[in-house]
Every structure is written in C-alpha cells, then in structure tokens.
C-alpha cells in the first residue's frame, strides 16, 4: 500500500514534467495516465532500491520516448502558468514577452536537450538523479545541459552563437 501512496504523491510532478515535454495539456495528461497505469499494473516489479518517484519518472520518460519514435510531431504550446502550481507573479508586459520568448526557445531545443534541461531546471533534480532518470552518463547529461543553455542564450538574444552546436545532440542514448 505504501507504494500506491507514493505513486499518488508523485502525480503533480509527473504532470508538470509531462506538460513541459509534450507542450499539449491533453497529450501530457494521457502520458501521465499511461505512466500511472503501467506503474500500478507492474508495482510488484518495483525493487524498492530507490524512490518511487524516480521509478515513475523513468516509466514516464521511456513512454515519452516511445511516443516520440512513433509520432515525432511537435505538440502545441502550453501556457507557462499551466505548468506551475504556484500563482504567477505579474512581471509586466516586458516580463511576459521574455517568458514567452524563453518558452518558445525551449520548445525549439532538440528533444534530448529539452529532456535534460527540464528534468534539472523544472523538476530540480540533481545531476546524478537526472542522469539516472534519463538513463545516460552524468557527463552526457552535463554536455546536453551546456548545449541547451548555450542554445537558449542565442535564441533569446543573450549569447553570441559561437558556443552552439548545430543540429541534434551527439550524445549517447
């Protein structure tokens, strides 16, 4: 029963991450639902060697990647206020434009860079946790984060472009 309670407690974080990945509220909710169904059906397979939430994130990420392989079409943009559970603070028109610019720039990142950036920046995972969840070496995670941040600086007009590696990431999966 303890596993089910921990699964339920992880739902808000799963929804937040899925919405940021999918950029479509309905598709993200479907992804979370699928993740939860798989987790509940196979909870007897959970080894108990780590947090349940980490196990759930692995299921969600793997399911997301399966969906991307089948249908790599980009989702719709989701309003940033739908991604956070705390009330948004009004930053004025300039702040709203900057936020939209960053959100659009994140949507333009290659999938592997976006996954890495969101799991660290949005979910606040440590580099070790994020690398484990994404099933990549820590060095690959760090490389993807560096490329994602450099690309974001250029796309938002805050960098030179010299540090951006064009095209998709070259790291292992």
At a glance:
It is built from seven helices and no strands. It is mostly helical and 173 residues long.
Description:
The protein has helices at 2-22, 25-41, 52-70, 92-108, 111-121, 127-134, 138-155. The chain is globular. The longest helix has 21 residues, at 2-22. Mean pLDDT is 80; it is low at 169-173. It folds into two domains: 2-70, Rna Polymerase Sigma Factor, Chain: A, CATH 1.10.1740.10; 92-155, Winged helix-like DNA-binding domain superfamily/Winged helix DNA-binding domain (Arc Repressor Mutant, subunit A). With 173 residues, the chain is mainly alpha-helical. Residues 100-152 form the RNA polymerase sigma factor 70 region 4 type domain. This is RNA polymerase sigma-70 factor, ECF subfamily. Residues 7-60 form the PhyR sigma2 domain.
Largest sheet: none
Strand content: under 5%
The total beta strand count reads: 0
| Ends distance | 34 Å
Helix content: 55-70%
Text of the CATH class of the largest domain: Mainly Alpha
CATH architecture level-2 label of the largest domain: Orthogonal Bundle
Order of helices and strands: HHHHHHH
The figure for the number of domains is 2
Low-pLDDT residue spans: 169-173
Overall radius of gyration? 17 Å
Task: Give the helix/strand class.
Answer: mainly alpha
CATH fold node name of the largest domain: Rna Polymerase Sigma Factor, Chain: A
Shape call: globular
**CATH-wise, what's the superfamily of the largest domain?**
RNA polymerase sigma factor, region 2, helix turn helix motif
State the oligomer: single chain
Kindly report the average pLDDT value.
80
By DSSP (H or I, 4+ residues per run), the number of helices equals 7
């Amino acid at each position: 029963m303890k596993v089910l309670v921990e699964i339920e407690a992880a739902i808000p974080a799963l929804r937040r991450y899925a919405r940021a990945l999918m950029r479509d509220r309905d598709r993200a909710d479907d992804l979370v639902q699928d993740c939860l169904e798989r987790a509940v059906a196979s909870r007897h397979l959970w080894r108990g060697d780590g947090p349940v939430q980490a196990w759930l994130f692995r299921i969600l990420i793997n399911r997301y990647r399966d969906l991307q392989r089948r249908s790599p079409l980009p989702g719709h943009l989701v309003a940033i206020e739908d991604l956070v559970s705390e009330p948004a603070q009004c930053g004025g028109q300039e702040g709203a434009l900057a936020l939209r610019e960053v959100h659009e720039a994140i949507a333009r990142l290659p999938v592997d860079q976006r996954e890495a950036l969101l799991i660290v920046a949005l979910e606040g995972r440590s580099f070790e946790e994020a690398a484990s969840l994404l099933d990549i070496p820590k060095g690959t995670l760090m490389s993807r984060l560096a490329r994602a941040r450099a690309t974001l600086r250029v796309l938002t007009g805050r960098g030179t472009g010299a540090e951006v590696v064009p095209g998709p990431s070259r790291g292992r999966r």
